[in-house]
Amino acid sequence: MVSFDKPGYGESDPDPIRTPKSLALDIEELADQLSLGSKFYVIGKSMGGQAAWGCLKYTPHRLAGVTLVAPVVNYYWRNLPLNISTEGFNLQQKRDQWAVRVAHYAPWLIYWWNTQNWFPGSSVVNRDGGVLSQPDKDIILKLGSSRKPHLAEVRQQGIHESINRDMIVGFGNWEFDPLELENPFLNREGSVHLWQGDEDMLVPVTLQRYIADKLPWLHYHEVAGGGHFFPLAKGVVDEIVKTALNH
After folding, report:
1. pLDDT per residue over 22-81, tens digit each?
2. Quick one: CA dihedral 17, 78, 133, 96, positive or negative?
3. Chain centre distance of CA 18
4. Is the Cα torsion angle 239, 179, 15, 72 positive or negative in sign?
5. φ, ψ of residue 181 in degrees (nearest 5)
6. Cα 99 from Cα 114, distance rounded (Å)
7. What per-residue confidence (pLDDT) applies to 145?
8. What is the rounded CA–CA span in Å between residue 208 and residue 246?
9. Which CATH number fits domain 20-245: 3.40.50.1820, 3.40.47.10, 3.40.50.300, 3.10.350.10?
């Protein structure tokens, strides 16, 4: 298994014109540089959904399978009905609703928005654990200090080309709509999976249910009592990987 830092994270160079397409092409090039073969599996979690959806759109011929884990949904996808997107949007805290609006309508303001002190910016950027569900709080408490050594390394280049850029890309105007994607595995030579916790306070489960309904070829796995960090619970990653490999 290979994990890599997206542009602007860790030691990866920033990419101020990053898109879901460029992420997909980055993955394809990385796979070729590492000689991973003509086909490979992709797993994208949370904001990593940008890359996973991008691979399904732009490099389906390279995929052995794709798994999306609590992927962030763009409220502005054109085929997401207004009532569905509004329902999910209204489940977010007001501070996060405003941060999403700024990322979409005024991305040049997002750095200022998330660093000024007049009113609260994005809860994720500011690491406000108060917005998390109880299952997520329990997992973080259990992990304890084991996470801390990595935090500074992840954002060593600052927040703008990392998490702010994720917001700009994630909630911007995409070149395609995932709800229009067709099954890339018509001959059943691979499969696509989407995992989602039903107590995720960062990515509303109602949005994923709609996506799963509109993309019947996608295998949907809803985790009862799971928050956004449910993959960090013991044994869950093994189950996700085995499910992807066994289909």
Report:
1. 999 999 999 999 999 999 999 999 999 999 999 999 999 999 999 999 999 999 999 999
2. positive
3. 15
4. negative
5. -70, 150
6. 8
7. 59
8. 23
9. 3.40.50.1820
Q: How confident is the model at residue 146 (pLDDT cuts 50, 70, 90)?
A: low
**What residues contact 99, with CB distance under 8 A and at least 6 apart?**
110, 113, 114, 121, 122, 125, 167
Please tell me whether the overall predicted TM-score, pTM, comes out greater than 0.85 for this model.
yes
- Tell me the C-alpha distance between 139 and 136, whole Å: 5
Per DSSP, the residues of 18-72 read --HHHHHHHHHHHHHHTT--S-EEEEEEGGGHHHHHHHHHH-GGGEEEEEEESPP
Token pair for residue 147? Answer: 């996470």
| Cβ burial 152-177 (10 Å sphere, 16+ → b, else e) | eeebebebbbbbbbbbbbbbbebebe
The H-or-E segment that residue 139 falls in is helix 134-143
- The domain limits of the chain are 20-245
Question: Residue 221: in which H helix or E strand, if any?
Answer: strand 218-223
**CA pair distance 20, 209, nearest whole angstrom:** 22
> What string of DSSP letters covers 156-178?
TT-SIIIIIHHHHHHTS--SS-G
- What does the radius of gyration of the chain's CA atoms come to, in whole angstroms? 17
